[in-house]
Amino acid sequence: MNLAYSFSGLLVGLLVGVTGVGGGSLMTPLLVFLFGFKPAVAVGTDLLFAAITKTGGVWVHHGKHGSVAWKIVGWLALGSIPFALLTLYVLKHLMEVGKEITGTITFTLGVALILTAIALLVRSMLLRRAAQLGQIDDEHSNESNAGRFAHLQIPATVLTGAVLGVLVTLSSVGAGALGTIALIFLYPKMSTLKIVGTDLAHAIPLTAVAGIGHLSLGNVDFTLLGSLLLGSIPGIWIGSHLSAKIPEKFLRPVLATILLLIGLKFVLA
């Protein structure tokens, strides 16, 4: 175990617990810039890290709150899993023919970070608007399914999953903030708690499939993974308890600005 990696995991876990920002958008740039890992290894390791850490959250949402719309998870996965596998196949082919995949992953990571930064800035506003619509909890209700796009809602959900599948597999970023924003648009009358639980539940199979795929490509560092888990799990627990004491309205814009600057650096590299 590496204490520096564990301490980084602790810091990221604290920020995730306080702000709800996905660990990938924070962890992956940290691994690349601070510790000098290749983008592919940072992405692959972070994907397995996300699959493990998010599992506990879904257990709480499903078991304690009953706040996972499993039908919507299935529609998202119908798009994301096949496209994640397709993306992995393309990455493997690029490696086999000797082409450099670092540039592709770096650029995609930058774009994902910029999109995440924008999502963070508008997420709170959208959640407040959704609350004003008089949210309901039953995803099977006709009112819940009478949101935007009407009869195109299911195809739009599958398409959203496909986009997330490509983006997350290439960058490990997007399953959290971008997935939440998409669900708010597609299901404006779904409760905030259920939106978060559903997005989290979909992220687990997606990050697991993408992470295992990167493992098969040799893009996972198990020493790094173990060290990050050692620090992040208590960090998330502490951060979740501190979240009520730290004003998120100040912290979230700062994080969004940092992610935007990092994203621009990746894109322009």
What is the topology?
Layout: H1 3-19, H2 23-33, H3 39-65, H4 70-96, H5 102-132, H6 153-171, H7 177-186, H8 192-216, H9 222-242, H10 248-268
Question: Brief overview, please?
Answer:
It contains ten helices and no strands.
Describe this structure in words.
The chain is an all-alpha fold and 269 residues long. The protein has 10 helices and no strands. The protein starts with a helix and ends with a helix. Mean pLDDT is 82; it is low at 136-146.
* Count of separate DSSP helical elements: 10
Main pleated-sheet profile: none
What's the helix-strand series? Answer: HHHHHHHHHH
Helical content, roughly? over 70%
Mean pLDDT: 82
Supply the number of structural domains: 1
Kindly name the structural category: mainly alpha
- The number of distinct β-strands equals 0
- Tell me, briefly, the overall form: globular
Which radius of gyration do the C-alpha atoms yield?
18 Å
The stretches of 5 or more residues where confidence is low (pLDDT under 50) are: 136-146
Strand content: under 5%
Distance between termini? 31 Å
